[in-house]
Amino acid sequence: MRDDAPNSWESRADASSFYGFTDLPSVHQRGTVVLTHGKGPYIYDVHGRAYLDANSGLWNMVAGFDHPGLIEAAKAQYERFPGYHAFFGRMSDQTVMLSEKLVEVSPFARGRVFYTNSGSEANDTMVKMLWFLGAAEGHPERRKIITRVNSYHGVTAVSASMTGKPYNSLFGLPLPGFIHVGCPHYWRFGQAGETEAEFTQRLARELEATIIKEGPDTIAGFFAEPVMGAGGVIPPSEGYFQAVQPVLKRYGIPLIADEVICGFGRTGNTWGCQTYDFMPDGIISSKNITAGFFPMGAVILGPELADRLQAASEAVEEFPHGFTASGHPVGCAIALKAIDVVMNEGLAENVRALTPKFEAGLAYLAENPNIGEWRGKGLMGALEAVKDKATKTPFPGDLSVSERIANSCTDHGLICRPLGQSIVLCPPFIMTEAQMDEMFEKLGAALKKVFAEVA
Ligand SMILES: *Cc1c(COP(=O)(O)O)cnc(C)c1O
């Protein structure tokens, strides 16, 4: 598999590039997959091998890798006005139009948008907005941020502190004041004899107890992904948001929906908060906001937060925050086109149309005695590998079972992602039924092979 010649792409990648979130033993043994181009949902490597990317890049390339309308929108805007910032009272017309569009498609009656280059920066920005509000409104002690165990909110120092993953301790994170409450994964964390509804109520009580213990006046906000993505595709337990939102309201704590993965169609509606029927105070968007054709994040403030932030900024004459490339005209032109493509060119409909087939495929593979659970919503799903299905006992970590499954898939021309003991699928919205069959056949073969080796 790996070409060890010093001038091979694999060796050059290894010698020159530092990998993020990459299993180094795997890459040393197998070599980096160096890519040249894509076509529809397929990507191609330097050896001409094709892979069906069942992860849409990193959840984001929902319109595939060669969408002509998106390429055209980018080209046209590069010719018209290839770059500008959004500071000092200036911004591009595309930026204005995208803000109007984002508010229009948001669940809010009105609101305002602030741009960043990534989801991490959007979460950081929202936290700074809440800190700024606390200081401006006479509550400088309102600084603590509550998120959940297994949540993923990004990698900058603040957003990593929000992320509820054990690897953050390698960086000495979280920073003080970042608090993690229970993960709403009933299958894994429900207690013996506890119904799903009782489990949800327990989490709501735990949240309230945490708020009281920390001091309600010290808490700036609660952030949650409607479906946890990088935690292993974890839909909330039954009634979860209906149970936690009244608790937050009781103490005046804003609920921010981190819609970086769920936003723009992934769960079958434009927003995950619509799928789970709750109204957040603000929304964090990124990833498929541009269908992955440009780096962009956005904070969408609902009416109340928008008004309060406006008043707080007026009082000191500015909101002293922003990134050089925030609201980039090319990114905004692409996002306008991407939203149109997803919402009006049949992609969102295809998500809804394909979901039953997707769920049936996951359920079929979950009949395997070494799959403990399948879970998902819309076109995001996961299969969790277990050594013992009845007791839900995981395989020993050093067997790297999910890594081996994903590697075996790669060998057969399918990209999917290991996350903990789970295999994650989040196909692009343009996927056809035949491509979905190909995806499940290849994954099924990989599961069979790896479980035969380890079970
Ligand atoms: C990916 C992700 C982020 C971070 O976005 P980046 O663009 O990688 O910084 C934040 N929140 C969620 C829910 C994500 O999935």
Automatic annotation (TrEMBL):
One of its GO terms (molecular function) is adenosylmethionine-8-amino-7-oxononanoate transaminase activity. Belongs to the class-III pyridoxal-phosphate-dependent aminotransferase family. InterPro entries: Aminotrans_3, Aminotrans_3_PPA_site, PyrdxlP-dep_Trfase, PyrdxlP-dep_Trfase_major, PyrdxlP-dep_Trfase_small. GO terms for biological process: biotin biosynthetic process; gamma-aminobutyric acid metabolic process. Pfam families: Aminotran_3. The keyword S-adenosyl-L-methionine does not apply. Transmembrane segments: none annotated. Keywords: Aminotransferase, Pyridoxal phosphate, Transferase. Its cofactor is pyridoxal 5'-phosphate. PANTHER family: ADENOSYLMETHIONINE-8-AMINO-7-OXONONANOATE AMINOTRANSFERASE (PTHR42684:SF3). It comes from the Bacteria. This is Aminotransferase protein.
